[in-house]
Write a structure and sequence with these properties.
about 110 residues, Serine Threonine Protein Phosphatase 5, Tetratricopeptide repeat
């Protein structure tokens, strides 16, 4: 996983230089997943929030749904279940809106 982080970091630097926000947000999400899998929950949260903010800026609803789902998982880890449900419900609402059935099945 550490090698993956190295390559994602290199890609992130390239995307930042190019101003390619869609790429940056995807990288932030992927780094968040790796951090989560490594047990670095706070770092994962930070990366998911960065990704979510860019997806909101880009009006990318699919990216927003995925990151709300991921952030919900973080709040479950932190035993903050009301916050988790808020993010799960937001993910579910967006997913229904765009017909993202795969995300809907993960939330339910």
């Amino acid at each position: 996983m550490k090698e993956s982080l190295k390559y994602y970091t290199e890609a992130l630097q390239i995307f930042e230089k190019l101003g390619f926000l869609e790429g940056e947000s995807a990288i932030y999400t992927n780094i968040g997943v790796i951090c989560y899998d490594m047990g670095e929950i706070s770092k994962a949260y930070d990366y998911y929030i960065r990704a979510l903010n860019i997806y909101i800026q880009l009006d990318n609803l699919n990216g927003q749904a995925i990151n709300h789902l991921n952030i919900g998982e973080i709040f479950v880890e932190w035993n903050e279940f009301n916050k988790a449900m808020n993010h799960y419900n937001t993910s579910l609402d967006i997913s229904h809106k765009i017909g993202a059935n795969q995300i809907v099945s993960m939330v339910q």
